[in-house]
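Quick illustration for those who missed Monday's session on complexes.
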Amino acid sequence: MQRFDFIPTPLVGLMVVQRKVIEDYRGLLSRLYCVEEFCAAGINKPIAQINHTITHNKGAVRGLHFQHPPHTETKLVSCLTGAIWDVAVDFRRNSPTFLQWHGETLSAENRKSLFIPEGFAHGFQTLTEDCELIYLHTAAYRPDAEGALNVADPRLNITWPLPIDDLSERDRNHSFIGLDSQGIVL
Ligand SMILES: Cc1cn([C@H]2C[C@H](O)[C@@H](COP(=O)(O)OP(=O)(O)O[C@H]3O[C@@H](C)C(=O)[C@@H](O)[C@H]3O)O2)c(=O)[nH]c1=O
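Prediction with dtdp-4-keto-L-rhamnose bound:
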């Protein structure tokens, strides 16, 4: 029996992963990841790091983060407590959807994860208090390779569902996207 549905989004390669649960009188069991099923869906890079975060405040935003080559990575983001609005921005220069974004609600209740391919920036806003997330990364964390877009960048025009009431100083200070005289992203 399949434990996941892989649902495409308008941004090629970005996928919602619906986790199917098995319930009995004790509670439930669900897989967060399965190498066999993910490989069959074309997601085949080995996992290098698993991160866990808790965000206390509702309305808090983290992001929009990525790692520069050669440390690009895919992320599988799951929300195990509470609910978030998860956003991925297509930052692949050759993509027809370059600079477009897609948002999905991920929650403990809906058991959706978001698979984010290489070349995307990622961020989220908490829709409840005390949100707990698990990230599966295909590259180790490299602070020297960190890149970021600003969550309030007008060129992205992300419509965050709640007023942003908490954003780290670092995330507040990421630059806006610049364009040269020919409209090329700098
Ligand atoms: C991501 C990361 C951070 N750190 C450290 C750096 C810092 O001292 C502290 C908190 O890091 P940050 O402020 O970057 O945490 P945060 O803003 O939660 O960063 C995360 O944001 C979301 C949107 C993502 O997509 C993740 O990949 C990650 O970038 O933890 C590690 O040691 N290892 C890691 O893998």
